[in-house]
Amino acid sequence: MLKYNCLKAILCSMLFVVSSYSSAGYIVGGASTTITPQSNCWAWDSTCVADFRAALENPDYFGPDGIVKETITTVTLSEVTEESLSGVNMFIAPWVGDGDGFAFSSAVIDFFLNGGDLFLLQDDSAHDVLGTLLGMSTTGSDGSVSNGGAPLFDGPFGTASNVTQHYNVGQLSEAEILAKNGNIGGVNASGQITSAYWAAGEYAAGAGSLFIIADVDMIATTSNCGLPVCGGDYTNLNDNAIYGLNVFHFLRTSGGSSSPPGAPPATGVPEPASFMLLMLGLLGFVRRK
User: Fold this and answer.
1) What is the pTM of this model?
2) Is the backbone peptide bond immediately before 151 cis, with ω within 30 degrees of 0?
3) pLDDT (tens digit, 9 = 90+) per residue, 82-108?
C-alpha cells in the first residue's frame, strides 16, 4: 500500500508540473530594474513598458479567444544567466544601458544563437550594447515617422502607418543589417532605417528570431512629448501599438522554438497534453490496484 501511495504522490506531482508548463504558453522574460537601473522607467518591470507587457497577457489579444490564439506569459528575471534564460522562449531588452547589458550579454547572445527569440528595443549609442555585439549599432535619426509593410506594419492586429519616435531617436545601418542577412523593417520619412528583423535561422543557423528597433518609444508608452499618449496606446490600439503587437507576433511565429531553448529536445519527447494523458492513465491504473 505504501509504495502505491508514493507512486500516486509522484504521478500527481508530475501532473501538476506538466499542467503548469502547458498552461504557461509562450514565455517572455526581461531583466528586472534591480539589474538594469540604467533603463529607468523603460525597464521590463517598470512603468514605460507596462502597457505593452500587459497587452501581451491580455486574453483579448493573445489567448484562446483572442486575436492570436495563444497564451503569452511574461516574467521578470532577477538575474540573466544561462540557467534563468533556459526557462523562457523570448528575452526582451527595453532600453538596456550598455553598462548593465554588457554584464549579461554573453548569456543573452548564447541564448539567441541556440534558438531563443530576442527582442531588442534600443534607442541610442548608450543603450545598444546587445545589438552592437550582434553587429547592429544605433546612431541618431531625424525622428520623422516610420512606415513599412508586412509583417511588422501589416499583421493580425491591423495596419500601422506613421509610427512615431520620441525623445532620443535612432536609426540602424542598412549595410550592417544586410551583412547579417537581415530584413529592413521600418523606414522613416527621410529614408533612415528604424527597425530590422530576422526569422529563425536567418541571422545564423540555429539562431532564434530577432527584432531590433532604433527607438524604444515607438513601442513604449509615455506622456512627456506633448501628446496625450507618446508611443503605444494598447487600450485603443493606435498605430504604434498595432506596430508593437504585430512585431511581437512576427517574432513568435517566426521563432526558434515553441518551447524554451533549455527544455529537452522535442524529438522523442511527448507534448505536454500527450504526457498528461499518459500520467492520467497511469494514475487510473494505480487506483485500480
Assistant:
1) 0.83
2) yes
3) 999 999 999 999 999 999 999 999 999
